[in-house]
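Reopening this ticket.

The earlier resolution said the output was attached, but the attachment link was broken on my side. Pasting everything inline this time so it's all in one place.
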Amino acid sequence: MADYDYDLFVIGAGSGGVRAARIAAGHGARVAIAEEHQVGGTCVIRGCVPKKLLVYGAHFAEDLEDARRFGWEVGEPTFNWPTLRDNVLSEVARLNSIYTQNLGNAKVEVILGRAVLLDAHTLDVGGRKVTADKILIATGARPAVPDVPGAEHGITSNEVFHLDHLPKNIVIAGGGYIANEFAGIFNEFGTKVTLLLRGDTLLRGYDQSLRERLHLISQVKGINFRFNAGFERIEKTETGVRIHVTDKGDPLDADMLLYAIGRPPNSEGLGLDTVGVKVDQLGAVVVDENSRTSVDNIYAVGDVTNRVQLTPVAIREGHAFADSVFGGKPWTVDYDCIPSAVFSHPPIASVGMTESEARNKLGQVKVYTSDFRAMKNVLADRNERALYKLVCDAATDRVVGAHIIGPDAAEIMQALAICVKAGLTKQQLDATVAIHPTMAEELVLMK
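Inline output:
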């Protein structure tokens, strides 16, 4: 190792790369990390964190309205987008500083610049040539842009946090979690929202009951949907954009078009082909269970591998890599029963198998549901129902899937995910005394 400048060189200072760098350095490795944008990666800088702050801001629209039913005399509220935008960006800058400081405290050298592989042990980083024994690719993914005429007239989630002003009318292309989250955010801010979907399904991969409930509630809130409508072309207009779609219906006019149609891996221009690192047809770096690529000393973690595009998964992959390669404590990530959430309005959370997946895999299943209005919604006179669902193996009574749509779904799901991961049974949930009055008590009362 002494013949190289570093024991480990990490390309990309997002969640997975930063964790790997800090853990490896803690094991005594000489580590450097290169980042061409801002330290923190997608989640911290232009993803989960700023988006969740916008979700919090959007919730006040309904909370202020509901407050009157709880006795609060609230004047006519007004919303100032620049205030929220600037406060969110300030928080992002603070986190960027903390991430950079933590890397420094761990004695990881941070190099701001693009790193490109020259051979299996050599990289060009902004014109500087460095060598490393091990190399970790952690460059994440990026928002997809459709390959159609006029695509440059739309924006992605990268730009949405920097808008000068809110659009009065927005079309959001996509049906996944990013599209539905921003649909809820913009709708609560008073923007007219239309979701444009190439297929006929919201949130593919989530339980059908939750998808149908979100669609219904979103429509009640005023969000419009246009299914089975792909892009044909996009043209710039005096007031925004005109979107021509493939369903032969009328084109859509909007102030703004936001793409949320997927996140391809950031693998181009890194020199992977030069050194023989294999990628799949989507551009994802191919790795084994130890995150090793087709080149023996080069590894990859996080969204660039397109295994599970979730921040906590990237962090675990980076940690496992560093412990295994530099700490003498080999372990691999368990991808079974990973909980996830969609911070829509209302939010969705899920873990384990959907009902259809369980029926296909297990045959006989038992499904328990609770369909109710949260106490707060009752007093607020808000006709919005939560839905809780447990999917159980009929042969063993084990809970193999849990799905929630309703207030605080993600917060409630985290604890329930432990139960599903641990293989607890429905009887064990039923034997647990409920905390009353709460929404979460429905989990141990379903019959």
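Reporter confirms the inline version is readable. DSSP finds 13 helices and 19 strands in the chain. Residues 151-259 form a domain with the FAD/NAD(P)-binding domain fold (CATH 3.50.50.60).
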